[in-house]
Every structure is written in C-alpha cells, then in structure tokens.
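example protein:
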Amino acid sequence: MPAQLTYTRPRELLLSCLAHPSLVINLSEIEWDMLLPLTRHSKLMGRLAERLIQLGIFNRLPARVQDHLIGSMRLTEHRQRMVLWEINRLERALKTSGTTVLVLKGGAYILARLSAGSGRLLADVDILVAHNDLDTIEKLLLSQGWEAVQLDDYDEHYYRAWMHEIPPLRHRDRCIEVDVHHTVLPVSSRYKPNPELLLTEARPVEGCQFKVLAPCDMILHSAAHLFLDGEFVNGLRDLSDIDLLLREFSQKDSRFWTRLLHRAAEMKLTRPLFYALRYTRRMLKTPVPRRAVVAAEFYSPGRRMARIMDALFERALMPDIPDVNDRWTPLARRLLLMRSHWLKMPPALLAYHTFRKSVKRWRPSAPK
C-alpha cells in the first residue's frame, strides 16, 4: 500500500517540521521526498539534522534520510571550521590594533555557542568596528594578505560614502569573504541605529579577543537585516535564527521581553522588531508572551498595511523554488526589493543610483 500523504502543501510541511521537529518521525516517504529539497534550498538541512539529534530521534529515521542529513552536517561543519579559522586569522592580524572588534551574524552564534549556531551554514565573516577605527583596521588587513574585491569607481565611492561597510575583503590564500562594518545599516538609510551603543553593550567571548553583540542587539540586528535589506535568498534561515535566539534568550532572562522592547525603542528599530515577532510567531510558532505581542503592536504599520505586508513577507521569506512559489511570489519579492531601496536611500540619491545602475546594465561590453 502506498504511503499516506499527511501534508499536501510543501509550505505547510516545511514550516511544521521547523517549528516542531519531532513531527518528522511520522513522515511518509513521499513527504521526506518533499521535505529534503525544501530544507536544502532553505539552507536549513544541517540545522534540522542537529535538532533531531538533540531530540534523540535521528536514529529512528529511514537510512536514506539519515544519509542526506549526515552529508548536510558534514558540509556545515566544514564551512564552520573555515569561518572559525578565518576569525582566528583576523584575531592574529588585529591583535596589535587596540580596537574593539565585534563578530556579527552566524560567526557570532558559533563563537557564543548559541542554539542558532547549531547546524548553521556559514558563508563569510562579518565584523563591526568603530568608524574612527575603520582606516586602521583596513590598513592592517591589507598589509597582511587581505585584498579588496575589485569594484568600479562608482561602486567604490558608493560603499565608502553611503554603505555601512567597506568593500568586501578576501585573503589571497583563502576563499572566505570578510565584511568590515562600521554600523549595521547603510549610512543613507532612514533607520539609523547608534553603533556606539552596540559597541558599548558588546559581550566578551571565552577564548577569543573579539566580542559579540548583546542578546537584544543580536536579535535587533538580525531583524533589521532581514526586514529592511530586501534580499531574501536566505530569508527563512534568517527567520529561523531569530526564532532560536528568542527562545534561548527568553529562557535565560526573565526580563528579556521588557529589555528587548526597550532596546528596540532606544535603537530606533521598533518596526523591524514588530515584523520579527509577527512572522516568527506566524510561521515558526515562536512562543512570544501576550504582553510582548501587545506592546509590539504599537509599532505596527496599521491593520490594513499589516495585511498587505503579510501577503508580501510570507511569500518572500520562503525558499525561492517552484514547490512553494505561487504566481504572486515574484511580484512580492520585487515590491519588497523596491521598498528596501526606498528605505535605504533618500529620493535624490535613489534616483541617481538607479540611473547609474541602469546605464551600467545596458552599456555594451568592451570588445575583447
């Protein structure tokens, strides 16, 4: 008799198994054939595998499923080793700088041994330094083997004048990209969190000279990156990061939710936090207390606009593959990208930037 299909929609299957991993023990072969590609495209297969091991049910899975999950864990472990080695090399290069350096995003989750780092597939290293230390850091890295990614004059100027980071660096002997930030959002953005507050509240890491963001700042940074950037290649993975961070930090600190809402107001990131709490609850069933939900609603864009944003974000945050896309998904992604540019740049700069990029896109290539 063929296996019975309980989940008929790939979206429902993926979100249910991420929110409640123990459900996978009852999946049919057909559902596993549906779920594995979804987790792979979402870059969440390694994370799911690690959670199943923690729950003690990994060995009860079909052998072929275990093979896929083990392969994903091996890849994740390899990438994490590469990133940790790059952080080690950065420590060595910057040990004489006398500056405070923060590791951001996935690298920070690994260094701080957070649940969000378990099974997290990493691609690069992001660090944050004070703006006044930026030249010192860049010169030290360039003198010790890191090289800037080659950009044309306009893009170089755009990075230096308007972005929250210098052009990416990569060591000549290694393939891991290093992004050196001096704040967490573009200088031209309408949202302007104070980077000095981030540096002041940064937490030390055992066995490492670098620091990481404080718990509330870690969540706010991830929320700002996800809901303001307009790029959703890893949208569901980043939402899963926020979900795990919220669960872990709220269990460790009884006043966490009060601190988080207060910090969001202090950092002027209340709207990204509203979206983070809304979509982690709706999509991943994050246990957010009622009082925090009510308080965050104060920062809502309004009931009608919230419904519109639901239609956009709940499509864009899913992996961009035919199994979960519908006919409105490309439009949702396009509208959110346009929104991100509108939030990122004032109108005059946006018009000029769009013109320059359009000219570059349509300019004929030079003959070889």
Notes: Residues 167 and 361 are 20 Å apart (CA to CA). The two ends are 62 Å apart (CA to CA). Strands lie at 102-104, 124-128, 146-148, 169-171, 177-181, 203-205, 208-212.
